[in-house]
Amino acid sequence: MKRIMSVLLVLVMAFGLVACGSSNDGAATIEQVEQKPEEPAASDNAAAEEETAEVEEPADNYHIGIVTGSVSQSEDDRRGAEAFQALYGEDRVTLAIYPDNFTEELETTIQTIVNLSDDPDMKAIIVNQAVPGTTEAFRQIKEKRPDIICIAGESHEDLPEIGSAADLVTNNDFVARGYLIIKTAHELGCDTFVHISFPRHMSYETMSRRVAVMQEACKEFGMEFVLETAPDPTSDVGVAGAQAYILEKVPEWVEKYGEKAAYFCTNDAHTEPLLKQLLEYGGYFIEADLPSPLMGYPGALGIDLTEENGDFQKILAKVESSVVEKGGEGRFGTWAFSYGYCLSAGLAQHAMNVIDGNSELCDIDDISKAFQQFSGEASWNGSSYTNAETGVKSDNTFLVYQDTYIMGNPGHFMGATDIEVPEKYFTVK
Q1: Fewest CB within a 10 Å sphere: which of 68, 243, 282, 347?
Q2: Which pTM value belongs to this model?
């Protein structure tokens, strides 16, 4: 009996060892599965990679710099830069301001632009307006940082010159607008067009060619063209002196040229006093040199737009209401969305789209797409810059414009972006 019990005990112990061995093997297998999940099939991997590529997020480890004038000289340009910075953050967007008296402080202007390239993460620099010194600044940047995209908005320097240093140049369409502003004035019943400027501006190809186009268009529409000279705000008289001159002269001009004359000035600082006096004494104003509901209108009308800040539909509605109240219905126009604002923000957005691989740098449709992000329902048009001397079109310089909006009750767009400008005007100089 003892012998039988001993045998049975040995068998039970042996069975227990076998069972424990099986259990340990199973535990090891489970642990291995938990530590190393099963790899998907090759076809699944390919599909996953393809899906990831389609929804790839833009890289956020690069910076964009925007250089503008001050609020006193170029408020809309600055506000557009601030809006873009607010959209993407101060850690990604760096802002700088060139001197008000940039013609006398050329070296400071150049250095202000070049300094942005010291940031190792800087990938694009936009200058709006591209005042004298921008070309040299871009050349210096390209010497040490050829990877940075250099973009000029509304160049004060000759377009072929700055186009040789910049990767992209975008200006208002001084050729098409030279014709369209006169055509619009004619449609509104104007018989005279008064152009106000000064020698520095008239030395710029963009402005001198626009004057030539305006003169030819006046001949076509049977209108008188007049050139008037006003002080340069960057001269010794400063902004205050230049504005005082306009305030004093407008009543004389209105008496001389009549209430059916339309007025145009090439400088932002001249715009507010011009609008103020035209509202009081009579006359027409089709649109500013760099059009915007904010360009001169708030100061001329004495209205506060703090609550409407950044909302151009509300800004336009308030400006328009004030213009109508002062008897300016059907005589005052603008672009519904600020050109300077759209240029600063739109060019920066375009640079970002290019860096992220979503746009081509020198594609007018891609440029317009970026502008449209900041201009609501207002339409844009444009074309490549054509050198009047050679007839050659540039591959990196574009001229753009927005439809003209005439304020009234109700106001309306003039359909300027749908009008085909006669080919002869593109070679007028």
Answers
A1: 282
A2: 0.75
